[in-house]
TrEMBL record:
The keyword Nucleotide-binding does not apply. Residues 8-87 form the Core-binding (CB) domain. SUPFAM superfamilies: DNA breaking-rejoining enzymes. Residues 106-282 form the Tyr recombinase domain. This is Tyr recombinase domain-containing protein. PANTHER family: PHAGE INTEGRASE-RELATED (PTHR30349), TRANSPOSASE A (PTHR30349:SF87).
């Protein structure tokens, strides 16, 4: 994590404030957001403690011309909190009346489960396949995801539990669908035996940063037919909407997604999913929502031969190489017939060109058989 002293060197912000944020378990991205926000005041050419209400009004108007509402809200909130800290815990007059639109603007589009699967199929690297599934199913914040280490994943008979350290402290998240790709990636990981190694390893050997994760996601989406604007946080939004639609209660949502106990985010996602209104309208028509309707789609492919759970994209079992669907079974039969044909051709070639080799082969096989039988008879006596 970046040192607050280093972050404060090129910023208007005081390092003591950053140390306070760090002591309160704020992430590195949060610290950087505060630096960026306070530095927007540089256009006023004044020290933060000397700002007037007129200065802030002019600054706020300038933000409206350049940034989206959500970005404006971020900058204003950070500046207000920083100036409050500078003023001994009270908002100074310059920001007392500064209005901030904290309306939660959720994405107009979310990814379907089918689109998540398309993305994993388009990913060339095992790391990226595992990362997409883990990001979606765990519902982690992107910053939490990239900080995951080998020790944070614990496999068990039901799948795996992921330990996440976020804004509200540590929490455990149950994952099932991610497990085959996650297990495969960790088995391939150059430092898979090191509990302290970052799971999402970059080409340079460190952990993959948020910017790299975003770029990877963009490249993968370009290979699909998905026309939506996809970014790391959309995987979290999509998962929250899907779970809300399937009836996960608000207390469970807070636990899974790391929201504060008094957060209204679960109710926002329930509203976005339309769960309550859907059930009410269906009931008016006498249509009862069954328990199976509320079950999540399961993409893990279980091998009928050995019971091994495979990645949703696998055609053949990763454990026993058995076919996982009729089409793959047909491919297996075709490959067997093709190999049998090659063996027959090879035998014909040897008979015609090296007949002695055939005789020697059968004679050697008979000698081996006789020696084996002799060994067995001696063992009995």
């Amino acid at each position: 994590m970046s040192d607050p002293q280093a972050l404060a060197q090129d910023s208007l912000i005081e390092e003591d404030f950053l140390y306070k944020l760090k002591a309160n378990n704020m992430s590195e991205n949060t610290l950087k957001n505060y630096c960026t926000s306070v530095d927007k005041l540089k256009t006023l050419d004044k020290k933060p403690e000397n700002l007037t209400e007129k200065d802030i009004i002019r600054w706020s108007a300038n933000l409206q011309e350049k940034y989206a509402e959500s970005t404006q809200a971020l900058y204003k909130n950070c500046v207000k909190r920083y100036l409050k800290w500078l003023n001994g815990g009270e908002y100074p007059d310059c920001v007392k009346d500064l209005k901030v639109n904290n309306k939660k603007n959720l994405p107009k589009e979310i990814l379907s489960h089918k689109e998540i699967k398309q993305m994993t199929q388009a990913a060339d690297k095992q790391r990226d396949r595992a990362m997409i599934w883990a990001a979606y199913e765990s519902g982690c914040r992107p910053g939490e995801l990239v900080e995951m280490k080998i020790k944070h994943v614990e496999f068990d008979r039901y799948g795996a539990k992921i330990m996440v350290d976020g804004k509200t402290g540590e929490r455990r998240i149950r994952v099932v669908e991610s497990v085959p790709d996650l297990r495969t990636w960790i088995s391939m990981h150059p430092n898979g035996d090191d509990p302290e190694a970052y799971i999402w390893r970059s080409r340079k050997g460190g952990n993959l940063q948020l910017r790299g994760w975003y770029r990877n996601l963009q490249r993968i989406v370009e290979k699909t037919e998905i026309k939506k604007h996809v970014y790391p946080h959309l995987l979290r939004h999509s998962r929250a909407t899907h779970l809300a639609a399937k009836g996960v209660n608000e207390a469970q949502m807070r636990e899974i997604f790391g929201w504060e106990k008094d957060s209204d985010m679960p109710s926002v996602y329930v509203h976005l999913s339309g769960r309550d209104t859907d059930e009410a309208v269906l009931n008016l028509y006498g249509i009862q929502v069954t328990e199976s309707d509320n079950q999540l789609e399961m993409s893990v492919r279980k091998c009928s031969f050995c019971g091994h759970e495979n990645s949703p994209n696998a055609k053949f079992c990763e454990e026993c190489n058995g076919p996982l669907d009729p089409q793959a079974a047909g491919q297996t039969d075709e490959r067997v017939r093709e190999q049998e044909g090659h063996v027959s051709e090879l035998l014909e070639f040897i008979k015609e060109n090296h007949p002695k080799a055939i005789v020697e082969f059968y004679e050697e096989r008979e000698r081996s058989k006789e020696l084996a039988e002799l060994g067995e008879s001696k063992a009995k006596t």
